[in-house]
C-alpha cells in the first residue's frame, strides 16, 4: 500500500483502559473485553512500538461538543439516566434491553465520543494522517435517541468537527453488518457528507432500514448510499459489491477526508448477523479503504470500530489488522497469533483462540466489469444501488 521509499504515515491510535467503562452489563454482547483484547494483541504484535505510531488517551466530550450532533434534551436525558439507572427513559432508547442503563453511562459514552473528536482534531492539526479509534463506531445513535448499543454517535461528531474545521467534503464508509442508520440520519440532508453503508439487508437484520431507495434528503440526493446484501453473503460477493459501488462514488464525490466504521460483526463466527465473512476479507477491506484515502484524500483517514461480538477470536484480530494497515505495514495473514496473547485469553477467560492472524480464506472475487448476473441476488442488490445513485453523479449504472 505504501511504496518502499515512501515514508510511513503518521498514525495515532486512541486508547485508554478507561474506555472499558463503556460496559452495559457482564452478559451484554457489547462487552469491553473486545477492547482489552484488541489493545493487548496490538501490544503483543509490537504494533504500538512502531516509530510512526502514537497512542492518545481520549478526553470526555463536553456537553457543548456533543450538542454538535445531539439534541441538548437528549444529552440531559443521558445524564439523568446515568445518575439514576433505575429510572429509564425508553422513549429515548435509554434503559432498554439493547441499551441498559448503568451508573456512569454518560461519561463512558462521552469518552468514546471524545476519542473520535480527538481523531478529527489530529487530522485538522496535521498531527496525524491516519487515526484509529477502535472503541468508537457507535453508528446507531441518532440526534435524539440511543439505539443498538450506541449512546453517542462518535463518527458523526468527528465528521461535524472536520466540517467545522474547514473540510469541504467527508466520505463516511460503514462496513458493519448492520445499517449505519444513525450516522446516515444525522447527515441525511447535508450535501457535504456522503454516507455509504454496506450491510445485511434490513429484511433480515436490525435495524430494518438501509435499502437502495434511501438516497438522502432533497438538498443532498445521492449522498446516502445503501448496499443491502442478502443473508449468507460471503467474502467474494461482499468484496464484489463493495468494489462495484464504493470506489466509483468516492471518486465522483471527491472527499477531502474519509471516516470509516469497521464493525466486524459480519464475520461467519459472529452470532449477531447472518453474513459469512472472514478476517481475511475484513483486512482486505481496510486495505481498500486506506488506498481510497491515499488516492483521493492525501491519505487523511479516520477509522473507527463498531459492532463485533465474537470478542476473543474475531474482534482482536480484525482490529489489530486495522491498526497495522493504518500504520502502513499490514500484518501478513499467515502471521502466528502471539503465544503470549493466546495463553492470556485461555487462562483469563477460558477461551481457545485461533493460532493464525488469518482464516485461510480464498479472497478472489469477480470484478463488476466481467458482467452483471441477474440471477445472482448480490448482483441484483448492487444494480439496485447503482440505478438509484450513479445517474445522480453522471455515472452509468451499467458500465461505470
Notes on the structure:
With about 400 residues, the protein is α/β, with parallel strands linked by helices. It has one domain (about 10-395): Histone deacetylase domain (Arginase, Chain A). Helices cover about 35% and strands about 10% of the residues. The protein has eleven helices and eight strands. It has an eight-stranded parallel β-sheet with strand order 2-1-3-8-7-4-5-6, sandwiched between helices. β7 (about 255-260), α8 (about 280-295) and β8 form a beta-alpha-beta unit. α1 (about 35-45) crosses α9 (about 315-325), α4 (about 105-125) runs parallel beside α5 (about 155-165) and α7 runs parallel beside α8 (about 280-295). The radius of gyration is 20 Å and the shape is globular. It starts with 10 loop residues before the first strand and ends in an 11-residue tail after the last helix.
CATH superfamily assignment? Histone deacetylase domain
Q: Give the proportion of residues in helices.
A: 25-40%
Shape: globular
The largest sheet has its strands arranged as 2-1-3-8-7-4-5-6
Q: Which whole number gives the mean pLDDT? A: 97
* Assigned CATH architecture: 3-Layer(aba) Sandwich
Low-confidence stretches: none
Q: Helix count?
A: 11
Count of the domains: 1
N-to-C CA distance? 24 Å
| Whole-angstrom Rg | 20 Å
The CATH class is Alpha Beta
Number of strands: 8
CATH topology (level 3) name: Arginase, Chain A
Order of helices and strands: EHEHHHEHEHEEHEHEHHH
Percentage of residues in DSSP E strands: 5-15%
Amino acid at each position: 500500500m505504501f511504496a518502499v521509499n515512501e515514508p510511513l504515515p503518521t498514525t495515532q491510535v486512541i486508547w485508554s483502559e478507561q474506555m472499558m467503562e463503556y460496559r452495559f452489563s457482564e452478559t451484554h454482547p457489547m462487552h469491553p473485553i473486545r477492547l482489552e483484547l484488541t489493545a493487548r494483541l496490538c501490544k503483543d504484535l509490537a504494533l504500538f512500538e512502531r516509530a510512526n505510531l502514537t497512542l492518545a488517551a481520549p478526553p470526555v466530550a463536553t456537553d457543548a461538543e456533543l450538542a454538535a450532533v445531539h439534541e441538548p434534551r437528549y444529552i440531559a436525558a443521558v445524564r439523568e439516566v446515568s445518575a439514576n439507572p433505575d429510572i429509564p427513559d425508553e422513549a429515548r432508547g435509554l434503559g432498554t434491553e439493547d441499551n441498559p442503563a448503568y451508573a456512569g453511562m454518560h461519561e463512558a459514552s462521552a469518552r468514546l465520543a471524545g476519542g473520535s473528536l480527538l481523531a478529527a482534531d489530529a487530522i485538522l492539526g496535521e498531527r496525524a494522517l491516519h487515526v484509529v479509534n477502535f472503541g468508537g463506531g457507535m453508528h446507531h445513535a441518532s440526534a435524539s435517541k440511543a439505539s443498538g448499543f450506541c449512546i453517542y454517535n462518535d463518527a458523526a461528531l468527528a465528521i461535524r468537527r472536520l466540517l467545522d474545521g474547514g473540510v469541504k467534503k467527508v466520505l463516511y464508509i460503514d462496513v458493519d453488518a448492520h445499517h449505519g442508520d444513525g450516522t446516515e440520519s444525522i447527515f441525511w440532508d447535508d450535501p457535504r457528507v456522503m454516507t455509504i453503508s454496506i450491510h445485511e439487508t434490513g429484511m433480515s437484520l436490525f435495524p430494518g432500514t438501509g435499502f437502495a431507495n434511501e438516497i438522502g434528503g432533497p438538498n443532498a440526493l445521492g449522498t446516502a448510499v445503501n448496499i443491502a446484501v442478502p443473508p449468507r453473503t460471503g467474502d467474494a460477493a461482499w468484496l464484489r459489491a463493495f468494489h462495484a459501488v464504493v470506489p466509483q462514488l468516492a471518486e465522483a464525490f471527491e472527499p477531502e477526508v474519509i471516516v470509516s466504521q469497521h464493525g466486524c460483526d459480519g464475520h461467519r463466527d459472529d452470532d449477531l448477523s447472518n453474513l459469512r465473512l472472514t478476517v481475511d476479507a475484513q483486512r482486505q477491506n481496510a486495505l481498500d479503504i486506506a488506498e481510497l484515502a491515499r488516492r483521493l484524500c492525501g491519505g487523511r483517514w479516520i477509522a473507527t470500530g463498531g459492532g463485533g461480538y465474537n470478542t476473543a477470536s474475531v474482534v482482536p484480530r480484525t482490529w489489530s489488522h486495522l491498526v497495522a494497515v493504518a500504520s502502513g505495514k499490514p500484518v501478513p495473514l499467515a502471521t502466528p497469533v502471539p503465544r503470549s496473547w493466546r495463553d492470556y485469553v485461555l487462562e483469563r477467560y477460558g477461551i481457545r483462540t485461533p493460532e493464525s492472524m488469518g482464516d485461510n480464506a480464498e479472497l478472489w472475487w469477480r470484478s463488476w466489469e466481467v458482467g452483471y448476473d441477474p440471477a445472482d441476488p448480490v448482483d441484483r442488490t448492487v444494480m439496485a444501488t447503482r440505478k438509484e445513485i450513479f445517474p445522480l453523479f453522471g455515472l452509468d449504472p451499467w458500465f461505470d
